Amino acid sequence: MKTTSPHLLRLLAAAALMLGANVASHAQDKATQLHNRATAAMCANCHGTEGRTIEGSAIPSLAGMPKDYMVLQMKAFKEGTRPATVMHQITKGLTDAQIDTIANYYAATKR
Ligand code: HEC
Questions:
Q1: Phi-psi region for residue 51, left (φ > 0), alpha (ψ -120 to 50) or beta?
Q2: pLDDT the model gives residue 83
Q3: What is the atom index within ligand 1 of the atom nearest the CA of 42?
Q4: Which of 16, 54, 64, 102 maximizes the CB count within 10 A of its CB?
Q5: What letters, b where the CB count within 10 A reaches 16 and e where it falls short, cover 37-68?
Q6: Which atom of ligand 1 is nearest to the CA of 99?
Q7: Please, which contacts does 84-89 make with residues 24 or more away whose CB atoms are closer than 8 Å?
Q8: 78 and 94 Cβ atoms separated by less than 8 Å
Q9: Taking CA 63 as the corner, what is the angle to CA 74 and CA 78, rounded to the nearest 5 degrees?
Q10: How far apart are CA 22 and CA 34, in angstroms?
């Protein structure tokens, strides 16, 4: 009776490892997506669910807003160069990395 070759066993072990790593990286992607979504959700109270306000709202929609534009506005609010009623307060609590994450999120959200 022929036994399984050690070479084949090594190959199988490598394949199993790669499969495991792949599953872990998908879980990581999913966790990052959820985290980004939760970060962006702090804007929903005023800017609407998924950043869509209703027609005629005084507060602008964020969905589909170009990333560069949003980052510039957020930094201007934070530094006080753009006058605001509330956004200067909101942006004070955000790091540049969070602003980047949020801007990416809304730029990728359909209007
Ligand atoms: C408490 C209500 C409130 C929350 C929460 C809020 N905003 Fe705002 N946002 C406003 C208001 C009101 C304005 C108009 C400027 C002002 O008066 O502060 C505004 C303006 C903006 C603008 C400028 C839009 C433009 O067309 O130039 C951006 C960008 C923005 N908000 C992004 C965000 C993001 C991103 C979040 C979440 C991190 C957020 N806002 C959370 C109320 C809010």
A1: left
A2: 97
A3: 37
A4: 102
A5: eebbeebeeebbebbbbeeeeeeebbbebeee
A6: 35
A7: 86/46
A8: yes
A9: 10
A10: 19
Residue 82 has pLDDT above 70, yes or no: yes
Give the integer Cα–Cα distance in Å for 70 and 6: 57
Q: Among 11-15, 62-66, 99-103, where is mean pLDDT lowest?
A: 11-15
Query: Whose Cα sits closest to atom 6 in ligand 1?
Result: 43
Tokens read off for 99: 């602003």
The tens digit of pLDDT for each residue in 10-53 reads: 888 888 888 888 888 899 899 999 999 999 999 999 999 999 99
* Nearest CA-CA partner of 86 in 58, 50, 109, 55: 58
Task: Look up tokens 């394949």; give the residue.
Answer: 15
59 lines ligand 1 (CB under 6 A): yes
Residues 87, 77 contacting (CB under 8 angstroms) = yes
